[in-house]
Description:
Layout (H helix, E strand, L loop, with lengths): L1 H26 L9 E7 L2 E5 L15 E4 L2 E8 L6 E3 L6 E4 L4 E4 L5 E4 L5 E2 L5 E2 L18 E4 L4 E5 L7 E5 L2 E3 L7 E4 L2 E3 L8 E3 L8 E4 L1 E3 L5 H36 L1
Antiparallel strand pairs: 1-4, 2-3, 5-19, 6-18, 7-8, 8-16, 9-10, 11-12, 12-13, 14-17, 15-16
Helix pairs in contact: 1-2
Amino acid sequence: MLRALMTAASGMKSQQLQLDTIANNIANVNTEGFKRSRLSFRSLLYQTLREPGAPTSSTLVQPTGLQIGSGAEVSAATKDFKQGELLQTDGQLDLAIQGEGFFRLRLPTGDFRYTRNGSFRLDANGVIVSSEGYPLEGAPSIPVDAISIIVGEDGTIATMNREDQLPQQLGQIQLYRFANPTGLKAQGRTMYTESGSTGAAQAQTPGQSGAGSVLQGYTERSNVQTVDELVSLIVAQRNYEVNSRAIKASDEMLQQTNQLIR
């Protein structure tokens, strides 16, 4: 019965983490470039009371043995990088990636961050930056007299200084891919850093070698599906409730045992 208390408690802890993950997904349903998380579970150690295949006589063996589990725990949290819905904004510096890849931002420390949030702006020096002010890696500076900015699907950036002038190409941005993007470490604000399990970032031209294309005037919405999250929320709540009932049943059995002793 004491084992049942701890086993059920481990199930409640796991479902609490599941609930926390679902709540974070729902909270970011309108966050641009956000990718939902999902948890994986695994069973804890088993106590072997009778070894499977152990001899019971000179000619017979145990067909199954007897093993008692000790509960469950969360084994991993995985980011789902499935494409989110593309929302048309008509903003000149609103960029969305259709397909695979990440934008790369440079921090003042020289470190890099990777993101799918393509809502960019211009700073006082004409540099294309994120909403936090981090420069977009590889993007050229935009002249002060530019009246329009044109971003091609291949990442080329051009400007027009007069309406009767042809666009002048200034540069080209790259997208970055990883061998294992699910290994990226989330840093908040829809930004990620590479880790030992992602492999090195590979710079690729948009639209080539499997990299996605860049769409100007669009942003990528969160890939959270509210209905799916609400269903998962109900399932987690019911699982938590069932585990709490197991604790209650174990407590009642212990209480009855104490009454017998008295």
